[in-house]
Design a protein that fits this description.
Layout lengths: L3 H47 L1 E2 L13 E6 L7 H6 L3 E2 L2 E8 L10 E4 L5 H12 L4 E4 L2 H6 L3 E6 L2 E7 H6 L3 E2 L1 H6 L2 E3 L4
Parallel strand pairs: 2-4, 2-5, 5-6, 6-7, 8-10
Antiparallel strand pairs: 1-9, 3-4, 7-8
């Protein structure tokens, strides 16, 4: 014969397990849009590499070197970016993803995605430090846009869009394809 106390404990354990399971499902549903957002942004980053041209005489244009894409600060992509570039090449070159808090030490850096988790002063510092190099800077906040990144992702009606600052790109001697410019939500033109 079962003890009434054991039945209550078993019932309580089952109830807690169900509650925890439901909470995890609710959290997964809540987090899914964020995960989907960054999976889409990961594909956008890959495509940005395809539509960007670095200076022809720059070491960054050497065909034997991989194209290096850095995530600066906290990584919002998880494995999505690694999966987006896995086994893909651009103009015959592999794409290497690195995660760092200080991209200035990376010698052959092509693109830097500056995380929203960086504090505003650090964002400005990073954009300024990379300004003298031919590094395509990318962000996804109003702070990164104001700091002067070349490409800034924005969410509009649940869709990922992007703005391009041609002044920032051309200041680094990076040419962005006219096809890419046509897809942008907004393009800030370089001064002649």
């Amino acid at each position: 014969m079962k003890q009434p106390g054991n039945m209550r404990l078993r019932w309580l354990a089952v109830t807690i397990a169900i509650a925890v399971g439901l909470q995890n499902c609710a959290q997964a549903e809540y987090l899914r849009p964020v995960a989907d957002e960054y999976a889409i942004k990961a594909v956008f980053l890959y495509n940005l590499v395809k539509y960007a041209e670095w200076p022809p005489r720059s070491p960054l244009s050497a065909p034997e070197l991989p194209i290096v894409l850095a995530i600066v600060g906290e990584d919002p992509f998880g494995r999505a970016l690694d999966e987006a570039v896995k086994d893909r090449t651009v103009r015959g070159r592999q794409i290497q993803v690195v995660r760092t808090s200080d991209p200035t030490g990376l010698k052959n850096l092509h693109m830097a995605f500056i995380s929203a988790e960086c504090n505003p002063a650090r964002i400005v510092e990073l954009v300024q430090a990379l300004a003298a190099r031919s590094v395509l800077t990318v962000g996804d906040t109003e702070r990164t846009a104001k700091a002067g990144v070349a490409v800034n992702f924005v969410m509009m009606q649940g869709k990922v869009r992007f703005d391009i600052d041609q002044r920032a790109a051309r200041g680094k001697h990076i040419e962005l394809s006219s096809q890419l410019l046509k897809l942008a939500r907004r393009v800030l033109e370089a001064e002649n």
